[in-house]
Every structure is written in C-alpha cells, then in structure tokens.
Amino acid sequence: MSADTDQQAREQLLDLAAQFYDQFELGEIPHMSVPTRTKSNIEYDEEKAVWVYGDRESTRSANSVRGARKLLKAVYTIEFLANQLEQDRSSTLRELYYLSESWDNKEAQFNDQDESNGLIEDLEIVSGVTREDFHMRPEESGATIMGPLHLREQTRRGEREIHCQEDVGEGGYQIPNNPDTIEFLDADADFILAVETGGMRDRLVENGFDEEYNALIVHLKGQPARATRRITKRLHDELDLPVTVFADGDPWSYRIYGSVAYGSIKSAHLSEYLATPEAQYIGIQPADIVEYDLPTDPLSDSDINALESELEDPRFQTDYWEEQIELQLEIGKKSEQQSLAARGLDFVTETYLPERLSEMDVI
Q1: Which GO terms describe its molecular function (predicted)?
Q2: What pLDDT does 4 receive?
Q3: Pick from 18, 74, 201, 293: CA 20 to 30 A from residue 97's CA?
C-alpha cells in the first residue's frame, strides 16, 4: 500500500474523531450513526445484484453510560489505528482486542473480541475506509490459488513476482490479507473454479485439473474470507475470467456461493468491492445426488429450515435455484463434494467437472 493511501486513511479516521469534538463545541451530545447490521436492514440491489444496507440506522450516543463507553472505545481505537498507520505497522483483529488491555482507561477496554470486531466494522462504514487500509488483518485464512497466473505483490521486503503454478508447491499461492497490493502481470487461465473444501482442492491439484483446463483453482476454505472474495472479484473484473463455485450440496454451501456472488450481511457495506454477481454455481446440485446416486446424509431440521429460508431469499429466487431447492426438500438428502469419489478418484476431473463446465458454456 502506498504512503499516500496510508495518509488518506489516517486523515479520514482523525476527521471522524474531530467530529466528536465539533459536536462538543456546538453543545451537542457526541454521537455516531451507523447502518443497523441485521438481516431486516439488508436490501437486495436489483441493479447491482448485490446485498446492501437499508436506511435503518443505529446511533452510538453519549447520552447514556453505555453509549458514552462505545464512543470512548471508538476514540481510543481511532488513536491506535492512526498511530499504526503513521508507523507503517499492522495488527490482527485478535491483537486489537488484547491491546486494549493496555489502554490507560479501563472503560475503553473491550469486553470480548466480538465487540472490537464490531467497532472496526462501524469505523469502516462511517469513515469509508476498509479495515485493510487501516492495516488490520484477520487471523490467517490460509486460502490459496493454484493455476496459470503470473503476478507481482508488494511485501515489506519489496516487490516480488510469482507464478501461481511454477513458483509454488502443491499448496499453491497464499492469498494476502489485502489483495489490492497485487498486480496481475499475465494469465493463461480460461476460468476460475472456487472450491469449498481442502480435500476437493487437493484432489483437483493432484489430478492436474488446473493444468489440463487452464483453471485458476481458488480454495475458499469454507465461508470465504474477504481477501478471497476480493481477489476473485478482481480476477473476474480485470482479466474477464468466468467464476464458478464448487461446493457441497447443502444449504450452508449454497450460502457460501451467495456470499461470493452477492455479498453477506456482515460486509454489506462492501458488496460492490467484494461480490461477483456473475459467479455461477457448478455443484454439488441436488440433481447430481439423484443422477449419480451419490452417498448422502439425511437433511436435519436446521437444513430444512435453511432451505425454506433460501426459497424466500432474493439471491435464490431464480428458476434454477427454486427447482434445485424444492428437489432437495423432496428427496430429503444432502451430499458432500467428496462423495463423487464413490464413482472413482478421477471421476470429478475426468467426467463431472468437464461435463458441468461444458453445460455452462465455460469450456
């Protein structure tokens, strides 16, 4: 990240703190308003095809002891972040929680990490600066890319160029916390295959799927981290690569697809920055469970509730998803990606994925 970007992020944070002092001078009770981050305040933007926050707001105001504590914690956090940017340092979300233990005012210390995480999200929304630009890192997600992509990344030791097949081991290239520090130099890829599980990701790499089909295999590691969603969006937008999501055949995995394609509640203020509405779901589909007679588990009550909820979800109100979800409710079964191994270890790379990718006009 450039010094100019750091300085701009620092100024926006300090401007936010200055607003509290301005409110004092005007005789107003200091306050800060942020969108209410609940499902009831999430709206589907039809034009942009992503989730965004609605008009409902919550106010953090010093007119109560609880509200005053929240603002005090915000001011201390802003000071910490501003100093961090000035010193060109970084820290993790977990470290921020523990760092507050050293602050001189006990009222400013966080009670738990959920509280400190929530405050960072508040500051993102109000300041218009992402946590990556604050130099705040989540714990390592370990998500990776394997495939024909040549890139240049900025590190503390300067720039380095990496080819995500030739210069990495079987584990692939680890996605950095802030993918906007990456420059794409060249790519021979034809599409992106975003994969939910590590076992399936390893199967695809071992079978040479990335080489045979010029695929960029992005390991999502379950619910994907922001960095994973951001680099997937950049690869799609800047290199014009189709994005496909390969996940387990259950309602929770469909939501993983939804977060890649349309965004999530926690990061709805960043949907345009993180989501790739053009992403397509490649499987496991409920139709695959029937067609290939895959090994299955019965749907639990929570699975059924989640599927019924998805039928009311604007992200899944298409003919395709309604048909698949209704079929799954009818058969009462779910199945994992790796259940395809029941047809042989090479079935997924020699038959299933090529056939699905062809049906979807990706290859």
Answers
A1: ATP binding; DNA binding; DNA topoisomerase type II (double strand cut, ATP-hydrolyzing) activity; magnesium ion binding
A2: 66
A3: 18
Annotated binding site for Mg(2+): 196, 248
> Which of 115, 137, 159 is a domain's end point?
137
Query: Domain range for residue 38?
Result: 3-137
* Residue among 247, 210, 196, 149 at smallest CA distance from 349: 210
Q: For this structure, is 53 an active site residue?
A: no
What torsion do the CA atoms of 282, 286, 291, 295 make, to the nearest 10 degrees?
Answer: 100
Which of 105, 137, 169 corresponds to the end of one domain? 137
User: Model confidence over 291-310: pLDDT tens digits?
Assistant: 998 889 999 999 999 999 88
Q: How far is CA 38 from CA 251, 255, 266, 267, in A?
A: 20, 16, 8, 11
Average of per-residue pLDDT values in the chain: 86
CATH number at residue 178: 3.40.1360.10
The domain that holds 65 is classified in CATH as 1.10.10.10
Q: Which of 44, 98, 273, 292 is catalytic?
A: 98
